[in-house]
Amino acid sequence: MDWVESLGMASKTLTSNKLRTALTMLGMIIGNASVIAMIGIGQGAQRLASEQFESLGPNVLFVTPGSGSARQRTSQLPRNLVWDDAKAIATQVPSVAEVAAQRQSQLTLTYGGRNRSSLVVGTTPEFLTVRDFDVAQGRFLTEDDLNRNRRIAVLGSEVAANFFGQESPIGKKIRLRNVSFEVVGVMQAKGSFLGSNQDDAVYIPLTTSATSLTGRTSPYGLDLTFISISAKDEQSIPAAEFQITNLLRLRHKIVNEDDFTVQTQKDILRIVGTITGGLTAMLAAIAGVSLLVGGIGIMNIMLVSVTERTQEIGLRKAIGAAQSDILVQFMIEAVLLSAAGGLLGTLVGVSGIYLVSTFTPLKAAVSAGAIGLAVGVSGSIGLVFGVIPARQAAKLDPIVALRSA
Fold first, then answer.
1. Comparison of pLDDT for 175 and 317, the residue scoring more
2. Could you tell me the pTM of the whole model?
3. What band does 70 get if pLDDT is binned at 50, 70 and 90?
4. d(CA 368, CA 350)
5. CA-wise closest residue to 222 among 120, 86, 106, 129
6. Alpha helices in 309-322 (DSSP H)
7. Which residues touch 218 (CB under 8 Å, ≥6 apart)?
8. How far apart are CA 238 and CA 266, in angstroms?
9. Can you give the C-alpha Rg of the chain in angstroms?
10. Each residue of 4-27: pLDDT tens digit?
């Protein structure tokens, strides 16, 4: 019996009991669909994170206060980042292009009897360039605003739309912690970053933030939440990271561990990639268990099939069928079951990815190689789990088989 004839017989056997065949394939369908969906969503999450980090600004680095066990430093108390640190980086690090000091807090805004809690960012004029923002109306902060501690504000697009709608907010007064601020500009919409809405923010001069709102300073100067820095170009980023670290260690008189952290976009993206990759691998492993259960289900049904078809096997052997013919036929049935289940599962998984991409910002996608690998693995599962039933069928004695039927 050739392969084509065996394939035809196997197909006929499987289609003769469609419900049982469908139920047998169910485990493979669920397992493969889960694997494809998890891979696609994981890759989409990494792509989304990469796009969002690119929107942070060109060649940007961040310096944040604190690092592991910073309190282990020798003679000094742990020191926060201060505005003088930012000024020193701007003037003494040659590979740096712009430096924006930032001091952030969540405050209540009031206008026309309505309240709204938004992120209030005290910053410097360089913020616009470093973070790659644009102004849609009016203007941004200037050095003169900082020097004069002016009570002015630039609204994020969502704050402006919420309070003023289609009306221009330029020249209007809003209140932050009951302190009046004049609106001088509105930022262009920027979108969300890792779930944080960048348009729901208000930008005010850094000095005004300290003197009129939060009032937090340390013995070393005006405290900062973090410092945003843009390197001169992409090639300058490693040098900038090294020079900033050395400068701050000198300024903070650090002997052992740093009391600050310098991170590049790639560092943060690597952390996000590690997290999403780990989650994807964990979920794919769970989905892999479904494939294993599907394979066991196929073996179980094939063993039942051997018992049910004992007469058929005995009759075929009695008229001259070789052991290899029986073995091949049952192996083909097992592989067909798992491959068809894998293929259907792949279609379900790809459909799920399409729905996720259509109705969410996550642009999930899976490569052709991953699809081919998933289908190949599902076919291999049939090959592995079909061996025992096929060998059992092939070794049946024709006389015993006919008697027991």
1. 175
2. 0.66
3. very low
4. 11
5. 86
6. 310-318
7. 79, 80, 82
8. 11
9. 33
10. 777 777 777 777 778 888 888 888
Query: What span, in angstroms and rounded, lies between the C-alpha atoms of 378 and 28?
Result: 7
Q: Which residue is listed with tokens 């930012």?
A: 86
Phi, psi of 204, deg, nearest 5: -130, 165
Please tell me the predicted confidence (pLDDT) of residue 405.
55
When the pLDDT of each residue in the chain is averaged and rounded to a whole number, the result is 83
| Alpha carbon distance 57, 97 (integer Å) | 12
- β-strand partners of 102: 123, 226
**Buried b / exposed e along 38-68 (16+ C-beta atoms within 10 A):** bbbbbbbbbebbeebbeebbebbbbbebeee
Cβ neighbour number for residue 343 with a 10 Å cutoff: 19
CB 196 within 8 A of CB 55: no
Q: What angle do CA 131, 126, 209 make, to 5 degrees?
A: 100
pLDDT band at 77 (very low <50, low <70, confident <90, very high): low
Q: How many CB atoms lie within 10 A of CB 184?
A: 23
- Count CA within 13 A, CB hemisphere, residue 257: 13
SS3 370: helix
Give the Cα separation of 329 and 312 in Å (integer). 12
The token pair at 116 is 């709204």
C-alpha closest to that of 199 among 114, 118, 122, 112: 118
